[in-house]
Task: inverse folding
């Protein structure tokens, strides 16, 4: 820290992203990326745009938003796009909380929510998960603030139903309820069908997990026009060109082959089911997951230790040194071959 940093950031604790190590090739099961490459045509589309990189990109993201609108049966005015869904979450905290409006989110959830709250001087009011790590919708009724819920939740993988989310929307008509659907394509119910009915619903999605484009940075949101206009206002007050031209083209090409993306999601789901069963055979307790990762612990072993032993053997997982979850590892679902490597190493470690 330099002596010039503003007082308002002196105590800011930044988000710690998962490792992206360069020292060796790991079986990488730590940041919930897709194990499969982007859809056919994506690389070519991005490459064509790269040849025009001397020109600014379309700040409106018109073609991309039209493609998303067609895909999700809404209008362009209902779609917002930006540089990863993290960007959109940041804008949403800026736009819909603060100035006396607190932000509510589960105490165990995406680690960025408390960071955005701190960054913007928003009062954070974490809501404890139940003992089984589920979210109780009853805890979110009639609150006096902005609400952000990841569905499925991270790092648990557990999901609410659309009806449960609807109960939260109904009970908070004066505040935005943000549903972060980063992992919804892996089997949970989306609340997109509720957008037409609830003007306080903001659904945030990403191309990072289910479309294999984490490195391209493309997130989008769907809501009624007013909320989208608010997000546009923030985007145009920071960086109108937040989605570069290669990424806009990549997104459009990816949507054109959403059959390929859906097939990959089915493969991940099948691998996930096998992985959960194999973990349980090895004595792990695994939370019921509808995401592309599984949150599990092995009785009698420490999560941090197991993470370290796996890393030594070339398998990266994610461990959170936080209350209630320090025993657990979050393991991304890779290819079947990658999961086979994981299980060879786990047996080696647990038998020693
Ligand atoms: C990965 C993740 C994101 C971030 O996605 P990007 O679009 O890559 O920024 C947002 N929310 C949750 C819950 C995530 O796990």
Result:
């Amino acid at each position: 820290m330099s002596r010039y940093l503003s007082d308002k950031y002196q105590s800011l604790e930044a988000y710690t992203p998962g490792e992206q190590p360069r020292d060796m090739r790991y079986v990488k099961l730590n940041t919930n990326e897709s194990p499969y490459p982007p859809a056919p045509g994506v690389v070519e589309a991005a490459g064509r745009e790269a040849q025009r990189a001397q020109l600014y990109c379309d700040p409106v993201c018109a073609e991309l938003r039209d493609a998303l609108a067609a895909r999700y049966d809404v209008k362009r005015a209902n779609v917002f796009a930006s540089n990863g869904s993290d960007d959109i979450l940041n804008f949403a905290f800026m736009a819909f909380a603060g100035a006396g409006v607190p932000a509510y989110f589960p105490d165990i959830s995406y680690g960025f929510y408390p960071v955005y709250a701190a960054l913007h001087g928003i009062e954070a009011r974490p809501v404890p998960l139940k003992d089984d790590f589920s979210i109780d919708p009853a805890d979110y009724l009639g609150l006096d603030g902005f609400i952000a819920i990841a569905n499925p939740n991270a790092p648990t993988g557990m999901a609410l139903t659309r009806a449960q989310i609807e109960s939260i929307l109904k009970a908070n008509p004066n505040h935005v309820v943000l549903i972060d659907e980063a992992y919804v394509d892996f089997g949970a119910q989306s609340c997109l069908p509720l957008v037409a009915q609830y003007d306080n619903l903001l659904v945030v999605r990403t191309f990072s997990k289910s479309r294999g484009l984490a490195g391209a940075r493309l997130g989008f949101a769907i809501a009624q026009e007013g909320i989208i206009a608010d997000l546009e206002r923030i985007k145009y007050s920071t960086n109108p060109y937040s989605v570069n031209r290669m990424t806009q083209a990549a997104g459009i090409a990816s949507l054109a082959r959403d059959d390929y993306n859906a097939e990959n999601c089915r493969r991940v789901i099948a691998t996930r089911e096998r992985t959960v069963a194999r973990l349980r055979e090895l004595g792990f307790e695994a939370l019921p997951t509808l995401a592309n990762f599984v949150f599990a612990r092995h009785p009698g072993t420490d999560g941090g230790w197991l993470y370290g032993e796996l890393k030594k053997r070339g398998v990266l997982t994610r461990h959170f040194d936080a209350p209630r979850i320090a025993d657990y590892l979050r393991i991304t679902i890779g290819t079947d071959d990658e999961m086979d490597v994981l299980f060879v190493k786990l047996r080696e470690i647990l038998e020693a």
